[in-house]
Specification:
Helices cover 29% and strands 34% of the residues. The chain is built from nine helices and 16 strands. Strands 6-5-16-13-8-9 form a six-stranded antiparallel sheet. The protein has a six-stranded antiparallel sheet with strand order 12-11-10-7-14-15. The longest helix has 15 residues. The protein is globular.
Length: 313
C-alpha cells in the first residue's frame, strides 16, 4: 500500500467554481484506501506557499506520492518540495488551473478520471526543473507582456480563459517592450562556446523560457521544448503590432511560432538575461519582482512525476 498525501487549494479559482472536483477526489481517496491501493488523506492549503510546507511534511511522514490538486501555482509550490527527493517519492497532478500548462504537456489536461487513474496506474517519469534566480519553475517563466498579464490575472477573484483574454486585449495597447540582452550559458553556467547561438539584444514584447512547450490552453510559446532533455527553450517575440498580432496568435496555437520573422528561438541549459532595471517576471504564472539581471538554469532529471502510461511528450 502506497502512502499518499493530496494537497488541495480551496482558493484556486477553478476549485471555487467547481466544488465537485474536491468531492470527486475525496471519493477516489476513499475507494483507493478501501481497496488497499493507497493509504491517503487530503489536506488543504491556508495561505501562500503553504503547499510547499505541506509537501515537505508529507515526505517527512513517509509519503511516496504527493498530489497537487490546484492550479499552476499550487503545482509549483508542491513540486518545489519534491525537487531531488529520493526515490520513489513522486509528484501527482490533478490540475485545476485556468491553463494547466504542465499538465497538458504531460497528457493530464484537466481534473478528470484520467488524472486520478494516472496517480495509481501511471508511469513515474523523471523530468527537469528550472530556476529563475532562486525561484524554481517546472513549466514556464517569462518577462515582458506575459509577466504583466500574470500580475493582472493574479489579482482577479474570478478567473477563466474569457477573463484572461479580456486582460490580454486591455493590456495590449499600453504595454511597452523591455530592452534586454540574452546570453546563453553552457552546463557549467559559463557563457556558451562560439559554436552556440550568440548574445542577443532586443526589445522584447514577450520573452518566455520553457521547460515544457506551452503556457497552457495549448498556447505553444516554446513548441520544440521537451521536459526531460536537460535544455531550456527561449522564445523572444518582438515588433508586435495590430497588423501582426492575430497571425502571431494563430502561429502560437498551431505550433508554428518559429516560422515568423518576429520570433527568435534559442536553446541552452541556461541563460543570463540583463535588462536596464528590476521589474516583473513570472514563474509558472506567478508574478514576482526580480532583479535587473536574471539567471535561468536547468536542474536536469530532478523531479519524479506520475504520467499517463504510454504518454511520452
Amino acid at each position: 500500500m502506497k502512502k499518499a498525501r493530496f494537497i488541495f487549494n480551496p482558493r484556486s479559482g477553478y476549485n471555487i467554481s467547481n466544488p465537485h472536483v474536491v468531492e470527486r477526489v475525496r471519493r477516489f481517496i476513499a475507494e483507493q484506501n478501501a481497496a488497499g491501493v493507497l493509504d491517503a488523506r487530503l489536506v488543504s492549503t491556508e495561505r501562500p506557499h503553504h503547499a510547499t510546507e505541506l509537501a515537505r511534511a508529507a515526505i517527512a511522514d513517509g509519503c511516496e506520492l504527493v498530489v497537487a490538486v490546484g492550479g499552476d501555482g499550487t503545482i509549483n509550490e508542491t513540486a518545489t518540495a519534491l525537487v531531488n527527493a529520493p526515490a520513489p517519492v513522486a509528484l501527482g497532478l490533478v490540475p485545476c488551473g485556468s491553463g494547466n500548462g504542465l499538465g497538458r504537456h504531460l497528457g493530464i489536461p484537466r481534473p478528470d478520471e484520467n488524472a486520478l487513474r494516472t496517480l495509481v496506474d501511471g508511469t513515474p517519469r523523471v523530468i527537469d526543473t528550472a530556476m529563475a534566480n532562486e525561484h524554481p519553475f517546472f513549466n514556464m517563466m517569462g518577462l515582458g507582456f506575459d509577466a504583466g498579464i500574470s500580475a493582472r490575472f493574479r489579482s482577479l477573484k474570478k478567473r477563466g480563459f474569457p477573463r484572461y483574454l479580456k486582460i490580454i486585449l486591455s493590456e495590449f495597447f499600453r504595454y511597452k517592450p523591455v530592452s534586454c540582452a540574452i546570453t546563453p550559458l553552457d552546463e557549467n553556467a559559463l557563457p556558451a562556446p562560439a559554436t552556440a547561438k550568440q548574445r542577443l539584444e532586443a526589445e522584447a514584447f514577450i520573452l518566455a523560457i520553457g521547460n515544457s512547450d506551452q503556457y497552457g490552453n495549448d498556447g505553444f510559446i516554446t513548441p520544440l521544448a521537451r521536459i526531460d532533455d536537460g535544455q531550456l527553450d527561449l522564445t523572444l517575440v518582438r515588433g508586435v503590432s495590430l497588423l501582426n498580432a492575430l497571425p502571431l496568435a494563430i502561429r502560437l496555437l498551431t505550433r508554428r511560432l518559429y516560422g515568423s520573422k518576429k520570433v527568435a528561438h534559442l536553446r541552452a541549459p541556461g541563460f543570463v538575461i540583463e535588462r536596464s532595471e528590476p521589474g516583473l517576471i513570472h514563474t509558472d504564472g506567478e508574478p514576482r519582482e526580480a532583479t535587473a539581471r536574471i539567471e535561468v538554469k536547468i536542474l536536469p532529471q530532478s523531479l519524479r512525476v506520475m504520467t499517463p502510461r504510454g504518454k511520452v511528450p
